[in-house]
Amino acid sequence: MRESPRGHPELAARFVADDARAHWHDQSLWWLRQKRDAAASVVPDWEALRDAAARIKAHVLGRLADYLVEFERNATAAGARVWFARDAEEHNAIVHRILAERGVVKLVKSKSMLTEECHLNPYLEARGIEVTDTDLGERIVQLRREPPSHIVMPAIHLKKEDIGELFHRELGTDAGASDPKYLTESARRHLRRRFFEAGAGLTGVNFAVAETGTVVVCTNEGNADMGASLPPIHIACMGVEKIVPRRQDLAVFLRLLARSATGQAVTSYTTHFHGPRRGGELHIVIVDNGRSRQLADEAFRRSLACIRCGACMNTCPVFRRSGGHSYGWVVPGPIGIILAPARDAAAHRTLPYASSLCGSCTDVCPVKIDLHHEILAWRQEMARRRLLSIGKRAGLRALGWIFRFALLYRLAGWLLRRVVPLLPRRLVHGRWNAWARQRELPPMPRATFRALYRRHRGGA
Predict the structure, then answer these.
(1) Residues paired with 271 in a beta bridge
(2) What's this model's pTM, rounded to 2 decimal places?
(3) Which of the pair, 121 or 397, is modelled with greater confidence?
(4) Fewer CB within 10 Å: N-end or C-end of the chain?
(5) Helix/strand/coil (H, E, C) string of 55-70?
């Protein structure tokens, strides 16, 4: 997905215009948050696991270059070919070169947020290679020609009726059919043929173990296993931050990942790829694409510890009510608010304000990234770079002066107490009720604002 020229407020307004769908989206994600809480509550050492994961990630980020060298050495010894890419363009060129040199014209691909970040699909399609996303949610949004709206559940913004209409148009299913089992079976038949026709399979990487040179892929549908096993060529694409030091460290993250993402005890498939299968090829493409620059920034480097579970999105009140597409970048939600401006601050200058700073994202993060503090730091950075609108800069400057001087603060309070009760009842009453209806709040009593104020002041 290319970055949207419009900001989060405009894109969110389009989503909330459909009030019923916005509420359904909110409830669906909150249900996942509740599942996460239930799954975490039955693990006695849950907080100890989070502490351990945070320490491991901090250690890795402090010695990232060493672990990348160790991983390359061990993966190469196991028979894999390791490639390094500085940016998205180089990553795409490497993948295309691997495919072109072997005459591959059909690629099956499992879910990979890195390849979404690099815009790999359109790059390969422009060069004559047919790309099929095989994760069901990814295939749905690919057929709709739109980006995923969530990093774990790419089509969470769609209802079964939307998918039934799409499959009728694209796959020839019965008109009006919306039974999930029927639609899933239709997709399975459609994708099975693509698996057998493909000359190569591409997967993402959840974790890469430096000690063994192993890449680990976690899925619930088994499509990554089929894509890596049926075609003779397996390409695994990963960001530099996916490294963990030892095999025993992996157990910490596997216990956290599924519970944080979907409330499951474990993903259905957790596959370790240690070298190519007999007669096949394994290519591992390791990508920087701005990560080293972020690693050097003390204020935001901890966000590189993210394991892409999506827990922060499921709990965020802004994400739940505005949808993933409103963020204008491949990784939405609180973690996206931090990552997107690091790539292009001007293009994503509205994102740091798409947060209530309630801290719920930090509370659920399995690796204890201080998400809301980093979002606040980005607000300060946007102001420092003068990327805010003139009106917002003026308003914030005025508030700063009011809060800085006690006399101004008391004067502002006095004016509010004197002026607000004198405002026309229709102005205050009508605007409050319009705002309250959108949020399912009780309407303001049908009394004048002056009367309400006097009642609050005890009849004064």
Answers:
(1) 217
(2) 0.86
(3) 121
(4) C
(5) HHHHHHHHCHHHHHHH
